[in-house]
Structures are given as structure tokens and as C-alpha cells.
Design a protein that fits this description.
The chain has one domain. α1 packs antiparallel against α2. The longest helix has 29 residues. It is mainly alpha-helical and 80 residues long.
Length: 80
């Protein structure tokens, strides 16, 4: 059930990103700056609320690599 909810949220945020892209490109093409502002607002919402959902695997890998690099740097400092 959790996987299905996560998949539904992921799909929702992907659709919102696609709508923001269409609005932004349409605003640039037509010179309608209100569409661009709406697209930017949607983008900020997706970034703030959907980042953890959309990029969950990437964030976990990044945290793991960061922790490994930090441990490596600490071991180098301790050898001196």
C-alpha cells in the first residue's frame, strides 16, 4: 500500500512539473509573463514538497557517498 501511495504522489509531482514546463514555455513563446510566474510558483512547490518523493533513491545514494567521503577524510586526518 505504501508503494502505491508513493507511486501516486510521484506521478502527481511529475504531472505538476510537466504542467509547469508547458506553462513556462508557453509564457516565453507568447510573452505572457503571468504563465511564467505560475510555472515558477509550481516549480517551487514541487521542489519544496516533492523533492524527497521524486528523488528518494538519488538522495539516499548521495547521503551514503557523503558519509563515506566524510569517514575517509576523518581517517586521513587521524593518521597525521
Amino acid at each position: 500500500m505504501k508503494r502505491k501511495v508513493s507511486s501516486l504522489k510521484k506521478t502527481t509531482y511529475l504531472i505538476l512539473l510537466f504542467v509547469a514546463l508547458i506553462l513556462f514555455l508557453g509564457g516565453l513563446n507568447n510573452g505572457n509573463y503571468m504563465n511564467n510566474l505560475i510555472a515558477i510558483l509550481i516549480g517551487f512547490i514541487v521542489y519544496s514538497k516533492g523533492n524527497k518523493i521524486l528523488f528518494e533513491d538519488y538522495n539516499q545514494r548521495k547521503q551514503k557517498k557523503t558519509a563515506e567521503a566524510k569517514a575517509f577524510r576523518e581517517s586521513l586526518r587521524n593518521k597525521k
